[in-house]
Amino acid sequence: MKVCVFGGGEAVGEHVLKLLDAAGHDAVTMAETENRAEEMKMLGAAEVFISGSGDFSKALAGADAVIYIPGAGSGAAESQDALVDHEAVGAVLEAARHEQLGRIVYLSAVRTDEPEETKETGEKHKPEAWVEDSSLTYTVIRAAKTVSKPGKGTIEAAESLDCEDAEMPYEDVAAVLVEALDNENTFHKTFEVTAGDMGVKEALDAL
């Protein structure tokens, strides 16, 4: 499968590139510089386009699916709310429709334990609705606060979780995004994930 990864340069995105390569997928992503592009190829990206024009058509051409990771990510500094570039999300969805892609896996900027008032900061919840209302076969995933810790390969997943102050390693979030790609039990679903005791596939199969 050819997968276009938006946010491949983020902490979660780097693990996504590695896992896609290990699973035999062709990962396509974008970078701001040639040096960064080379680094991302070393991580496992099959092809890296230099961004800047806002034209996603080259990256999306011939792709089967999109994995979208918000630019600021849920793993931004502890005091920083993850924000969403609404224009970019909308542009990717429009380009995906134009290229007749069928699949999108969207990592929401909304965390699992986020209070209602901060969900409205920068209207982080709006892109979720855009993805859900698109013509694409979507999966929207809300993760606990992402952290730089070794992945365990085990998670908890449900439509809604009660996991205040929970954390989840970047690598495990990436594993959920990649597993969701062709796991039909995640199609047309929005759900939450955090660290847990079940294997990733097992947890998603049980949704």
Account of the 3D structure:
33% of the residues lie in helices and 25% in strands. It is an alpha/beta fold and 207 residues long. The chain has a nine-stranded mixed beta sheet with strand order 3-2-1-4-5-6-10-8-11, with helices on both faces. The chain has a two-stranded parallel ribbon with strand order 7-9. β4 (65-68), α4 and β5 form a beta-alpha-beta unit. α4 packs parallel to α6. The chain starts with a strand and ends with a helix. Mean pLDDT is 87; it is low at 72-82.
Q: What keywords describe this structure?
A:
207 residues, alpha/beta, 8 helices, 11 strands, 33% helix, 25% strand
Give a short overview.
By secondary structure, this protein is an alpha/beta fold. It is 33% helix and 25% strand. The protein has a nine-stranded mixed beta sheet, sandwiched between helices.
Whole-number mean pLDDT: 87
Low-confidence stretches: 72-82
Reading side by side through the largest sheet, how are the strands ordered?
A: 3-2-1-4-5-6-10-8-11
Helix/strand class: alpha/beta
How many separate helices? Answer: 8
Largest sheet: 9 strands, mixed
Give the termini distance in whole angstroms.
24 Å
Q: Characterize the overall form.
A: globular
The helix-strand sequence is EHEHEHEHEHHEEEEHEEH
Q: How large is the radius of gyration?
A: 16 Å
| Residue share in β-strands | 15-25%
Helix content: 25-40%
Number of strands: 11
Strand and helix layout:
Layout: E1 2-6, H1 11-22, E2 26-31, H2 34-43, E3 47-50, H3 57-60, E4 65-68, H4 86-98, E5 103-107, H5 116-119, H6 126-133, E6 137-143, E7 145-147, E8 154-158, E9 167-169, H7 170-180, E10 189-195, E11 198-199, H8 200-205
Parallel strand pairs: 1-2, 1-4, 2-3, 4-5, 5-6, 6-10, 7-9
Antiparallel strand pairs: 8-10, 8-11
Helix pairs in contact: 1-7, 4-6
